[in-house]
Design goal:
It contains 5 helices and 8 strands, in the order H-E-E-E-E-H-E-E-E-H-E-H-H. By secondary structure, the chain is of the alpha+beta class. It has a single domain, classed as OB fold (Dihydrolipoamide Acetyltransferase, E2P) (Beta Barrel). The strands form 2 sheets. A 5-stranded mixed β-barrel has the order 1-2-3-6-5. Strands 4-8 form a two-stranded antiparallel ribbon. Strand 6 and strand 7 form a beta hairpin.
Length: about 160
């Protein structure tokens, strides 16, 4: 099989698995999880892709949730999703009027660029999210005001080990 044909088949597979969800945000669980109600009154639990926000009981957890609420609560959104996580949530990029909310959370300093999953992002998104995190850190926005902010994956690991 030629490399071109293989690349086309791979691209089709990715396209076939992609799903667009449109609806209104009816809930914000934390800084990286929302509930979207679609036109058929079906609720979709959405985990924002490419980012990881502080846990609720962690420093900046409430601020991160408030930031996401300001961006999306009760607003019409489009979600680009192509997978589910181990909790059954759809993982995707949330857009409000074409603005990438996931990226905005990183720019505001209320989420990390989740590099453990960056290979699932487009090359362009990887660059944008990485740059946004660096800028937020330099400007000491949000959680970057803390001298040593604890990434949520480390926080969760420490909680599991106790």
């Amino acid at each position: 099989m030629s490399k071109l044909l293989l690349a086309l088949l791979l691209a089709l597979t990715v396209t076939v698995n992609a799903e667009i969800i449109t609806g209104r945000v009816v809930g914000v669980a934390d800084g990286d999880t929302v509930t979207v109600l679609d036109a058929d009154k079906v609720q979709h639990k959405i985990r924002l892709s490419g980012i990881d926000a502080p846990e609720k009981k962690q420093d900046f957890g409430n601020s991160s949730k408030e930031s996401l609420s300001d961006l999306v609560f009760s607003k019409a959104v489009t979600v680009e999703t192509d997978k589910k996580d181990r909790y059954g949530r759809e993982v995707g990029k949330v857009l409000v009027n074409g603005v990438d909310v996931n990226l905005e959370q990183v720019q505001r300093g209320f989420a990390w660029h989740y590099k453990a999953y960056e290979r699932e992002q487009s090359a362009n998104d990887r660059k944008l999210y990485d740059f946004a995190e660096s800028e937020a850190k330099t400007a000491r926005r949000g959680l970057w005001r803390d001298v040593h902010p604890v990434p949520p994956w480390e926080y969760r690991k420490a909680k599991r080990n106790h």
